[in-house]
């Protein structure tokens, strides 16, 4: 029995290119000319077919722009396919962006009704579940206060609580697990696991490979609008990772027609001995090597390597800007290596961006954005936001005398 | 905080199968759309109630605004047309003429203005969650009808003050308002859908409504329009609606069934067409909003 069938589904977007701003001065004339430019077709997904069995948990992964969000929008019927057919068997609920249907002026109680009915619950159903929703969110005291007076934590909890009380046949999950604090995320995941165990079909579309691996048996890999792989979670995630680290396409941002003084050629991650390494452990030594080519001399150059989390937040950076030592570049090929003895990043996939610029200059010389990913694993549990290298030692007190301290262990 | 969420026990086999395909039109899709709307009737109710509540929350005068608006307009137009311009009204007090017109016009213009921007101002919802999108413009129509009902009490007061005796014809007021609601609903569906792609509509709306109001017998009686223009003039559905409402309320002139009939036919034919158009736009609304 299939709960969800994608049958040769394609989705086309039409992109209109703006007429070059320099061609004509007057904005009205430009508008008029825009009306006559031919829109360009962009196929967000093309001829995608898959089926999801009842009770199955399927993950969909892929790079930015691979068509994941289009699949999500099609599944939740926010938009319709250009061709093909989607069959949905049962009540589908999308657990996306908690609280997006809240109205600040209305009380918590009124918002439960409002949000609940937007998500597709009937008033009777909401009334029945009202107490349970309030208790789960832990906002009973404030339930008749306008939600604009809620703390952001209460807001998120109430939003999730409403969504968690939907009893869908098919649950659609976005990056919901990326919001809120750790305890909220854990609660979120617990509830989802609970639903899964009770036989709810789950489709999970995410960047968070660990969560996908944990939740889904089967994973589909999307690439440029097509399914390129389908298989067990482990298999597909592994394939995706090696694909992400080795054969990534570089997205370059630079002015057309200008030769750059410096061009970034490649970014690679290596171990201490200089060997390429696909996956790093938290706490391991990491060498990031940037290969570049200098076309024209630069007097005082600054290199920086930025790490971003899956949801696009800048996480940390390695930069030569922190020291006042000048780096002067002369034409030719070269590389720069950043070394960190103990990697402080927690497990996950990080996007990177590399840029080179002249110190205090307004424009960067060359910029490579999200072209390479860094995958970090850790086989032990670590809590918090980052890893702090540390060691520990013990001092024994014998006969009132403190002994020499003995190093007992370290994170190395 | 640690409350358990009861899981649904026992599998009920009442699963609905939904098929999403490329946008297209057939009578079946129209029926299916209506079915979908029916499924989401609770949302229509909740959102409409919410519109009404939010509108008057945190305003000192609250619900009195529903009354104040047409009332103050009536005073302004009375000053202009009855005191300054001295327009002939055939014996009926001008404030009654103006208020009967403005009452219906407020319903029409409030519903149309607010619903036109309704989809765009809810873009965050439209791009995140599915629900039949027509619910958004419809809630504004419902809220406008609610305001209309409140303002009706002023009309009753006015009729008592000017000693206008009620007649049996007054019962016609109900179907006339129904025709108006049909008409404004179809206009709201079309305008809100167009607004998604072309924001020009929203910008042009105040001007359009101003023109439309003076092209309808809102602040002047139909008798003020020269006879030879009447036929052309009556093609505007608001003419039949406003004029017949006025004549059944005031009772002086006979009910012009022809004009009302024309308005009714236009409105009734327009609604399904508007709905089909709206549904067509809805299919890719989230892509362009």
What can you see in these coordinates?
The complex is a heterodimer of chains A (412) and B (289). Chain A is α+β, with helices and mostly antiparallel strands and 412 residues long. Chain A has helices spanning 27-36, 68-75, 108-118, 123-137, 152-164, 182-197, 209-215, 233-246, and strands at 2-15, 40-53, 57-62, 83-89, 92-95, 170-173, 201-205, 218-223, 226-232, 251-252, 262-270, 279-281, 286-294, 301-308, 314-319, 332-340, 348-358, 364-377, 391-394, 397-398, 401-402, 406-410. Chain A is globular. Chain B is an all-alpha fold and 289 residues long. Chain B has 12 helices and 1 strand, in the order βαααααααααααα. Chain B has helices at 27-39, 41-56, 65-84, 94-121, 123-126, 135-161, 173-197, 200-214, 230-233, 237-250, 257-282, 285-288, and one strand spanning 17-20. In chain B, helix 6 runs antiparallel to helix 7. Chain B is globular and about 65 Å long. At the A-B interface, strand 4, helix 3, helix 4 and helix 6 of A face strand 1, helix 2, helix 5 and helix 12 of B.
What is the rounded Rg of chain B?
22 Å
Principal-axis shape of chain A equals globular
Largest interface here, residues on each chain? A-B, 51 and 40 residues
Can you summarize the main beta sheet of chain B? none
The level of helicity of chain B is 55-70%
- β-strand amount of chain A: 35-45%
Determine the mean pLDDT of chain A: 82
What's the end-to-end separation of chain B, in Å? Answer: 38 Å
- The count of strands of chain A amounts to 22
Low-confidence stretches of chain A: 245-257
Strand order, main sheet of chain A: write it out.
Answer: 5-6-7-3-8-9
**Tally of separate helices of chain B:** 12
What is the chain-wise order of helices and strands of chain A?
EHEEHEEHHHEHEHEEHEEEEEEEEEEEEE
Largest sheet of chain A: 6 strands, mixed
Number of helices of chain A: 8
Q: What is the helix/strand order of chain B?
A: EHHHHHHHHHHHH
| Residue runs with pLDDT of under 50 for 5 or more positions of chain B | none
Sheet/helix structural class of chain A? alpha+beta
Nearest-angstrom radius of gyration of chain A?
26 Å
């Amino acid at each position: 029995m299939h709960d969800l069938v994608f049958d040769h589904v394609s989705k086309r977007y039409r992109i209109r290119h703006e007429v070059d701003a320099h061609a004509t001065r007057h904005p009205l004339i430009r508008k008029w000319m825009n009306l006559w430019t031919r829109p360009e077709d962009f196929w967000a997904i093309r001829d995608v077919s898959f089926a999801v069995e009842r009770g199955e948990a399927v993950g969909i992964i892929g790079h930015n722009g691979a068509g994941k969000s289009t699949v999500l929008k099609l599944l939740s019927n926010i938009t319709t396919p250009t061709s093909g057919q989607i069959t949905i068997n049962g009540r589908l609920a999308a657990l996306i962006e908690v609280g997006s249907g809240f109205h600040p002026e209305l009380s918590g109680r009124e918002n439960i009704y409002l949000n609940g009915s937007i998500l597709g619950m009937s008033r009777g159903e909401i009334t029945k579940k009202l107490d349970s929703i309030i208790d789960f969110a832990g906002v009973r005291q404030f339930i008749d206060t306008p939600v604009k007076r809620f703390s952001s934590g209460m807001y998120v909890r109430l939003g999730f609580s409403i969504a968690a009380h939907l009893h869908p046949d098919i649950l659609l999950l976005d990056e919901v697990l990326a919001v809120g604090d750790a305890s909220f995320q854990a609660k979120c995941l617990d509830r989802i696991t609970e639903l899964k165990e009770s036989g709810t079909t789950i489709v999970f579309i995410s960047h968070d490979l660990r969560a996908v691996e944990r939740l889904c048996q089967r994973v589909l890999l999307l690439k440029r609008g097509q399914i390129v792989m389908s298989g067990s979670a482990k298999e597909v995630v592994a394939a995706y990772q090696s694909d992400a680290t080795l054969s990534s396409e570089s997205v370059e941002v630079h002015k057309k027609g200008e030769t750059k003084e410096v061009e970034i050629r490649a970014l690679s991650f290596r171990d201490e001995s200089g060997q390429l390494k696909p996956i790093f452990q938290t706490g391991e030594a990491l060498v990031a090597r940037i290969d570049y080519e200098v076309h024209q001399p630069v007097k005082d150059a600054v290199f920086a390597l930025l790490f971003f989390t899956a949801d696009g937040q800048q996480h940390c950076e390695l930069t030569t800007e922190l020291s006042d030592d000048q780096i002067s570049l002369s034409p030719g090929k070269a590389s720069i290596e950043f070394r960190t003895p103990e990697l402080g990043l927690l497990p996950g996939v990080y996007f990177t961006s590399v840029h080179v610029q002249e110190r205090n200059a307004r424009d960067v010389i060359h910029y490579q954005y999200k072209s390479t990913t860094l995958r970090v694993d850790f086989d032990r549990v670590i809590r918090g936001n980052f890893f702090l290298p540390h060691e520990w030692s013990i001092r024994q007190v014998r006969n009132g005398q403190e002994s020499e301290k003995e190093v007992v262990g370290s994170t190395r | 905080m640690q409350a358990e969420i009861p899981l649904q026990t026992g599998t009920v086999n009442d699963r609905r199968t939904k098929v999403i395909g490329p946008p297209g039109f057939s009578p079946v899709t129209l029926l299916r759309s209506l079915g979908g709307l029916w499924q989401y009737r609770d949302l229509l109710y909740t959102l409409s109630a919410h519109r009404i509540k939010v509108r008057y929350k945190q305003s000192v005068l609250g619900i009195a605004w529903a009354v104040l608006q047409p009332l103050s307009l009536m005073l302004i137009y009375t000053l202009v047309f009855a005191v300054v311009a001295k327009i002939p009204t055939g014996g009926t007090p001008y404030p009654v003429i103006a208020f009967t017109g403005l009452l219906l016009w407020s319903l029409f213009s409030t519903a149309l203005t607010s619903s036109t921007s309704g989809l765009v101002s809810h873009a965050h919802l439209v791009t995140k969650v599915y629900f039949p999108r027509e619910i958004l413009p419809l809630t504004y129509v419902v809220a406008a009808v609610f305001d209309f009902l409140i303002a009706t009490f002023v009309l009753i007061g006015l009729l008592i003050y000017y000693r206008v005796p009620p007649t049996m014809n007054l019962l016609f007021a109900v179907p006339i308002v129904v025709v108006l609601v049909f008409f404004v609903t179809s206009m709201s569906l079309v305008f809100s859908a167009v607004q998604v792609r072309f924001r020009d509509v929203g910008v042009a709306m105040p001007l359009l409504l101003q023109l439309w109001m003076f092209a309808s017998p809102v602040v002047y009686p139909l008798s003020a329009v020269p006879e030879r223009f009447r036929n052309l003039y009556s093609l505007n559905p608001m003419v039949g609606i406003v004029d017949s409402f006025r004549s059944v309320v005031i009772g002086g002139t006979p009910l012009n069934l022809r004009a009302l009939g024309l308005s009714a036919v236009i409105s009734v034919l327009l609604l399904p067409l508007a709905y089909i158009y709206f549904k067509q736009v809805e299919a890719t609304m989230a892509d362009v909003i």
